[in-house]
Amino acid sequence: MNDDIDGRFVLPRLIDKIADGPRFEVMERRGQVLKMIDSRYALSLDGILNAVTEEKDVKQHKVAVILDVDVDLARTLFKELSGKAKIIGVWVGLDSLDKLKDRLKAKLASTAIPFPPGETEETYIRAKIRKVIKDIEFGVVSGMFDFTILNDDFDVSLAELKEAAKYCFK
Length: 170
Known about the structure:
This protein is α/β, with parallel strands linked by helices and 170 residues long. The chain is 45% helix and 15% strand. It has 2 domains: 1-68, no CATH class; 88-170, no CATH class. Strand 3 (33-36) and strand 4 (41-44) form a beta hairpin.
């Protein structure tokens, strides 16, 4: 995406659990670790706020940190970053629940996601769809999202995201 938007998007600085061991442990105890990305790296508020190092770019709104988060983390970010950073939320999702159901079935069939013990495929899918509906309801009524992208075509979604991103730099 950087080549289309002049490299103005940056990723947050992640905490390295191994290299930043003592610092990581202190941040974890203080609740400053927002999300483990994998077994080694984590996202923190500090990593988001300090991802942009060029002060002139920040003052001129030339650079933005881009994050891919779920609804729970979006809630936390909006709460924690309020007044500290300008947040532009973009809701990205499939354009039908049937497509979601088909994807879940395909992932279960391929064992890409582990099948929870004690559940049938039907109960698992119903629970996931209820969660998605609850998340969509939140996305609509929360006022946190400035743009919505709904489709299952990656290239179309990316083009729409790039178009929405132009808003960030106005």
